[in-house]
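ok so I'm stuck.
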Amino acid sequence: MRPSSALRAAAWGVVVVGVAVPLARRRLRIPPPVVTASAAAAPVALSVAVRRSRGRDAAVCALQMWAYIATYQMPHDDAEALEARVHVDYPVTVDRAIGLGRLPTLRLQRALAKDGELRVADQALVWVHWIWFLVPHGTVAYMLLRHRERFPAAAARIYAVFDLGVIVYWALPTAPPWYAATHGRIHGAEGEAAMRRIMVEHGEAFWKERWQPLYSFLGGNPLAAMPSLHFATSLMAARVLAEAGPIEGAVGWTYALTLGFALVYLGEHYVVDLLVGATLAEGVRRSAPAFVPAARALSRAVQRLEAAAQA
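replied:
not stuck anymore, here's the structure
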């Protein structure tokens, strides 16, 4: 076998292993570090196995998110162990201070929500939350298709927010407001309705019998609220879009700020989750230039391997 063919075969082997290991982790009881390392190697290996194109760039991003999803979900593989170490009370305390003695979520729901009713505005905010799944990746795809020269930096910053956030999910698992409320850690004023989880109310009404399987599939890890990566990645996407143009920026910022309001109002995140998420996004943005030399060196090394594999 020619050296180039052997190198390509080895690279494809790493890709296959990186895709397969997260799928088999529960059945084979594969240690989490092995799962993450295997999955994280797959995007690099694909960059060696295939010549660069828009299709390869998109596949590399997909493999990057595959590694993130596996790492994000693994703490919840043992749900009882995760619940035993999850933090519930500290964000309640912080948000109560932010809300001057009352949780901002309870203030918003008391002022805007109608008990037992799902207004059109409530449903719209739920959909703002749900379409988040498309926003960071849609932003990366937009940059790939319309501003390819900006694509590498944009993708690196957005996915860095994901990757750094998941480290906190492992180190400091934190429950969202709805979880604290269902476990008796959040109480409204006397005679006031308890905190609602409006997303679930609308999900059950809209999706009916499909809701529970859909939520179970997409939920992944319900005890991963700090920081809010919904908000952090949307802010980074807004930054990226603003660099592409004023119209794109206006769309990005409008969505991010609306999502931030929705997350608190719906009971999905605390204000402190959003503040830490915003800090994470801004930290990644400000520190990105310092990592440019290392990123370029890694890129050159991968390009040399790619050239050798394609010779």
